[in-house]
Amino acid sequence: MAKEKKLVESITSMDEDFAQWYTDVVKKAELMDYSSIKGCMIFKPAGYAIWENIQQELDRRFKETGVQNVYMPMFISEGLLNKEKEHVEGFAPEVAWVTHGGLNSLQERLCVRPTSETLFCDFYKNDIHSYRDLPKVYNQWCSVVRWEKETRPFLRSREFLWQEGHTAHATEEEAQERTEQMLHVYERFCEDVLAIPVICGQKTEKEKFAGAKATYTIEALMHDGKALQSGTSHNFGDGFAKAFGIQYTDKNNELQYVHQTSWGLSTRLIGAIIMVHGDNSGLVLPPKIAPVQAMVIPIQQQKEGVLEKAQELLSTLKGRFRAQIDLSEKSPGWKFAEQEMRGIPVRIELGPKDIEKGQCVLVRRDTREKYPVSFEELCERLEELLSQIQKDMFERAKSFRDSHMSDAYDYAQFKDAVENKPGFIRGMWCGEKACEEKIKEETTATSRCMPFAQEQISDVCVCCGKPAKKLVYWGKAY
């Protein structure tokens, strides 16, 4: 028990210091480690396994919509990057440059990709000639580099893993349809697989992606009341096409510019999983994304028949569930605490007394409820329990989000909500950039999105009192 207590006490309470709690969890659960390169992180097996599951599930969903995977170089020449001025200005402070190849200075600097729009545009201008070549619906899984000043594991690092989709279409309508389609792929993935409720909407002009015609986002609420932009989808219109000369001959034999989209989601989702579901004992992983869904823990394993029966149960589970067994010589209490720290959805306890009764005990990570189950019913009951845990985790997260949402009708109410009511703040907006900037400067809250589901909760802007145009979700964010 002393060791178990020590393990839990090594995590700072989230109510005491949420940032330190987060760091403690990612370290103690062995998701990552710090690199000798400042701002870069090492994915340990437990952390990378979560990303692999995210990647596999998303990749399947992408391909169901006709997406094909490709891979582009990691270097972008300075001349190529400069072809799209607005895009370059947006990323300039974060770009990492290569100036030497071996011992020789390069004639032209190379940028380590912060994103790959220019690479895809350079490729498309030579690959697209006719309307028969369209659409191009490509995606790549890769890492990108952005020289961030302040970093935090998974949420913001100088190199991170992600996917970036880049598509080209014949018409504006097709591009808009694909932009929204991929946003909803993200939405369903987050809610169905990660058990994270999100709000879908459009970014304001100020907050949109550099070079985009329109940017759409899914926003999730973390346990500390801050928002996390969890995925974005951009309609580029024909702006990039005109900058790079991407044209095709239409059915009337006339030259037209293509319309493009881009959409991305990154390893910051691992941070979202931690901050939405975690507790003071560590991770709480949704079953659909958990690398290990069930851990068999033999109790008094030195006694005759216990290890043999535990191995037999594991064999029954393998192939149907992602299951493991803890054969270490640690005490049962330590094993339980370790399983909780790692966020494994269910542990299966098995001791001599259980064997006598022909049963094992299933213990939920999220609620710690216990369920005696006969050996014959184990697989069926475990499947039901994992499904119930997945559903309950989503409902709890949704209930938390909905209870941390407030409406503001004037600036005094808005500032009070920012100060005293962590979470999303719904407030009407006049559409003026000056109001956005004032709110950010005076409260540190930003516009998260203009939701697709628009409501008219007031007739006036929450900041200036002028006639309102859009309902906006505001909040402090990562």
Q: What is the count of helical runs?
A: 15
Cα-to-Cα separation, first versus last residue = 37 Å
Question: What is the number of strand segments?
Answer: 23
Helix/strand class: alpha+beta
Mean pLDDT: 95
Which residues form runs of ≥5 with pLDDT under 50? 1-5
Which sheet architecture does the biggest sheet show? 11 strands, mixed
* Order of neighbouring strands in the sheet with most strands: 3-7-8-14-11-10-9-22-23-21-20
Q: What is the approximate shape?
A: globular
In terms of DSSP E residues, the strand content is 25-35%
The share of residues in helices is: 25-40%
Radius of gyration: 25 Å
In short:
It is built from 15 helices and 23 strands.
Provide a descriptive summary of the structure in words:
The chain has an eleven-stranded mixed sheet, with helices on both faces. The chain has a five-stranded mixed sheet with strand order 16-15-17-18-19, sandwiched between helices. A three-stranded antiparallel sheet has the order 4-6-5. Strand 1 (32-34) and strand 2 (41-43) form a beta hairpin. 41% of the residues are buried. The protein has 478 residues and is an alpha+beta fold. The chain has helices spanning 2-9, 18-28, 45-64, 78-81, 85-91, 117-127, 172-192, 239-244, 268-277, 306-317, 332-342, 352-357, 378-403, 411-420, 433-443, and strands at residues 32-34, 41-43, 68-69, 75-77, 96-101, 104-112, 136-145, 159-169, 199-202, 214-221, 227-237, 247-249, 255-257, 259-266, 294-298, 323-325, 346-350, 359-364, 370-374, 405-407, 424-429, 446-451, 470-475. Helix 1 packs parallel to helix 11 and helix 3 crosses helix 7. Helix content is 36%, strand content 27%. Mean pLDDT is 95; it is low at 1-5.
